[in-house]
Amino acid sequence: MHIDKDLVAASATPIVLGILAEGDLYGYAILKRVSELSGGGLQWTDGMLYPLLHRLERLGHVSSSWGTSEAGRRRKHYAITPSGRATLAERQEQWTVVADALRQVWQSGQRPPLTAEGWA
Amino acid sequence: MEQHLALDADIDRWRGYLQRHQAISSADIDELEDHLREQVTDLQATGLDDTEAFLVAIKRLGNLDAVSREFAREHSDRLWKQLSLVPQESRESGGTPARELTVVLALAVAAGLAVRAGITWLDDAALARNLALLVVPFVAAYFAWKRRLGIRTVAALVLPAVVLAVLLNVYPFDSDSSTEPLAAMHAVVALWLLVGIAYVGGRWRSDGRRMDFARFTGELAIYFTLLAIGGGVLTGLTVAVLQLVGIDPEQALGSWVLPFAVPGALVVAAWLVEAKQNVVENIAPVLTRVFTPLTIIMLLTLLGALATAGGLGEVDRELLILMDAILVLVVGLLLYSISARDPLAPPGLFDTLQLVLLLAALAVDAVLLTAMLTRIAEFGASPNKLAALGLNLLLLVHLAWAARLSVGFLRGRSAFAPLERWQTRYLPVYGIWAAVVVVVFPPAFAFA
């Protein structure tokens, strides 16, 4: 399934912060977790994660530290900060409102037709 | 095992490609490489071989230009090379940059004091004669300190400078002498080449180092101009405010502020160029590309004007001197643009433009030479005319040979290196000529 670019962009920050709230991780592991959580449905362009992480770091939502991997390579680990947790809580509320609204729409209204035969 | 080597080579190439993106720092590249290798390992576990895994991992990482743009958006500051004069790493260890700053500031103040002393104790003519001698040695001293010159090189620098200083002040110039300003002007050139020897750390035979000095001179001119503009604005605002509150700062400005500010700015500019060569390196090619076409237009305009002005014999003496100055400027531009050019790049449009510039300058030089020879034949030789004639001949040889080499380069018959080498090999000739004008001209013309 292809998920709209804007939706991916909008959800990226809360997802990354949420994953980091579970524990410190490095970039590749974050992406693996994203893929796990979405059952492979949410595919990011891997390279784009890093500018996002750097932005979150600049905003003070995450902190980073260099360590070494099992193979002895330099590896950058990210951890969520208190400010990141606050942002995450805020985003959670926002997304809950959105999700609630969507669910009610899906339930009360007619479901949109899945196929649009004869429209093309 | 061999396959893994191929993978390492692939990753190295990929790193090299990333490094060309200024927005991605080397730490970011390490981070991305860790990601890439992790991905490759996981893909290999699913049965892909090295090459397949590498290709898939690269593909997942996304279009590098797009990723780089995203990095640039986050780190826009990195696109501006940052001028860190006191780098943080070395501040902890050793503390040399701070000491360098102290040395530079001390030299700047010393240059100011020297000029100030000159203003106090020398009459106007002597001051004009010695001004360069009061300032330039401090720039040379900075490089002598910076390059840790040996005692022999220092002696080789001090000796000619002392000879110049003594001659300039011992020669009994007439009160309305024309050899005096000539000697003073040419002493500046000779002194500047001595600075060059200090700059190249005594390795004056090296073509590469000579080119560095040409580059340094151009960049120094840019930095000095920037400092002068900034200083001018600051001084102008201060003067305006002081005048409004009823203090007239003109006296203090002329006798204290400027004598310290101008020589100080020169020393500081030299240090700035040295401290961060590559900041201006980015702008040098741009400047030469802007000014080469403009200079061509200027030269063609001048040629047109000279052609329509009629008899060349009547051309004003001052005009000839001005035109000489313009030609010197062209040679400066040529040197600077050659020093800013990537010697391995194939000939392009800009090289053609440079050849056009050379040809236009040659045409102007030919017109000038004709005018000068006509004047000399008509009114006889004078120190001014001979000095101008000599300079013109030097410029003619310089430009003509450069044009020849440049044609060869454009036609693909030779590389760029000979053209570059010609510039640097020819530089000392100007120094020798300058020395001749300082040392030989005054006695030869009886100090008239």
Automatic annotation (TrEMBL), chain A:
List the Pfam families hit by this protein, alphabetically. PadR (PF03551)
Query: Where does the source fall among the domains of life?
Result: Bacteria
Q: Which InterPro entries match?
A: Metal_resp_DNA-bind_regulator (IPR052509), Tscrpt_reg_PadR_N (IPR005149), WH-like_DNA-bd_sf (IPR036388), WH_DNA-bd_sf (IPR036390)
All copies of the Transcription regulator PadR N-terminal domain together span 16-90
| Listed PANTHER family | PADR-FAMILY TRANSCRIPTIONAL REGULATOR, TRANSCRIPTIONAL REGULATOR RV3488
Q: What is this protein called?
A: PadR family transcriptional regulator
Species of the source = Pengzhenrongella frigida
From TrEMBL, chain B:
Metal-binding is among the record's keywords: no
Transmembrane helix is among the record's keywords: yes
Q: Which organism's genome codes for this protein?
A: Pengzhenrongella frigida
NCBIfam families hit by this protein:
perm_prefix_1
What residue ranges are annotated as transmembrane?
101-121, 127-145, 154-171, 183-200, 220-247, 253-274, 286-307, 319-340, 352-374, 386-407, 427-447
Q: Which terms are listed as keywords in the entry?
A: Membrane, Transmembrane, Transmembrane helix
Q: What protein name is recorded for this chain? A: DUF4153 domain-containing protein
